[in-house]
Amino acid sequence: MLMQAQDYLNSSYPEGQRREEKTLEINNQNLEGTLDLKDFENLESLDCSYNQLSSTNFLSTLPFPEKLIYLNISNNNFTEDDLSFLSKFVELEELRLGTFDENRINQGIYNRFCGSLKSLRNMNRLETLEISNTDIDSGYEYLPLNVRTIISSSQMRPEAKVEKIDDALSPYRSDGNWEVDIGSARINFWETHGLEKIDELERLIDDLNSKNVNLKSENAKLISENTNLESENAKLNSENTDLKSENVNLNLKNDTLNSRIDKLTGIGVDLLNDWNELHNNKQQLITIVDELKKQLELKDEELKKAREANDETAIMKLMQEIEKLKESLAEKEKEIAKLEENEKTITELVKSKEELKKLKEGFLTKIDKMKRFSDQKEAISNQVDKFLELIESNEISFKKSEKYKKHTDEVKSIKTETDNIRKELAKFGLAKELNDLSNKQRDVTKKELKLQEIKDIKKSLQG
């Protein structure tokens, strides 16, 4: 009669004693179900053979797998699984995984482990390995040189794939026993299959993993830069709010200023159109990225199957295809990040246009206050003309950016003219207001440069 494994464990090993246990023997008890070994902190030997356990998940509950030196899970009923669950047990000296009870096998009760022994490559103290009647069919070339005995019989289950390993190791066994010269077997394997080719494959895998790490790092960096840009944008918005309360006391010509605002409004419409186009391009890129990810998942599945089949040619081909897919994926993700940044830039430029419109309204309000300075009207009028020329120069630079041209000389000229105007206006106590406008102008210039980048991306996408 079957018994729940955890019930047996609870009745035989009280919780208060488990931390001191170094040996756990629960073999030949007809156990099924799951086990929780989290309290066995000093376990060195575990024998749960001759039961009907079907899942190896209980081994993951051991708090210190590196302390285990003996593990026997033979003659159970484990479902089909590779040996990756054993990779943490690096200090094992003896490992038993097979089934050698003919009566159990005839009833269909046996361990169905399969695949490669590669997961045992770091068990440098391993001496004895038992894998009888399993479907483990490859990977002996990765076993540590310390291995002395490999029991790999397929006599009770002739269809067992472990026969491949048994046949390969047969020339390196001592007569009449399971001892094996694993060193010679490994050398012969690598000489036969090409050590350089395997090393190159391992190198490509390492490179691919490294590129994946770099891709994640670059993504984190882009996220951080995006956060910084949002912070800078918030700061600019705050500064713009402050500027609204300190409008320059200049007597502007209403018609001329209205004309400038109308032109900026037209530019704003163009910017919105650009934003919509960029947004559509981004959605197309996202669709491409999703498709690339699906292709990558399919290639990963094919690669897994190729590795299980030990098809080196297919592995090499698939690794190259995966690398190309990941490169393409990284490129498209960078383009998406760039488009998202440019969408924000256009939004900021549109906001700048709105702010200039509000600035005009503030100017008109303050015109009345300037009327009482009639004796200074002519001087101020001259300064107003110069300020209008400054705005016109700014608009010229803005138009040149739309035509994909740089305007370094215009910016320098504006800076020089701004300094001269500041000196003149200092006589009328208006230097601070002009300085605020100059800061605003520099912000617009920076955004113009970003607009240039947007145009370049649009051009490359259209090409």
Structure characteristics:
463 residues; alpha/beta; Leucine-rich repeat, LRR (right-handed beta-alpha superhelix); two-stranded parallel ribbon; 10 strands; elongated; Leu-rich_rpt; coiled coil; LRR_dom_sf
Describe this structure in words.
It is a single chain. The chain is of the alpha/beta class. It has two domains: 3-193, Alpha-Beta Horseshoe (Leucine-rich repeat, LRR (right-handed beta-alpha superhelix)), CATH 3.80.10.10; 196-462, no CATH class. The protein is 60% helix and 6% strand. It has eleven helices and ten strands. The protein has helices spanning 5-12, 15-18, 102-106, 163-169, 182-193, 195-244, 254-308, 312-370, 377-402, 408-425, 431-462; strands at residues 3-4, 23-25, 31-32, 45-47, 70-72, 94-96, 114-116, 128-130, 135-138, 149-151. The chain has a six-stranded parallel β-sheet with strand order 2-4-5-6-8-10, with no helix packed on it. The longest helix has 59 residues, at 312-370. 21% of the residues are buried. InterPro entries: Leu-rich_rpt, LRR_dom_sf. Keywords: Coiled coil. Residues 198-362 form a coiled coil.
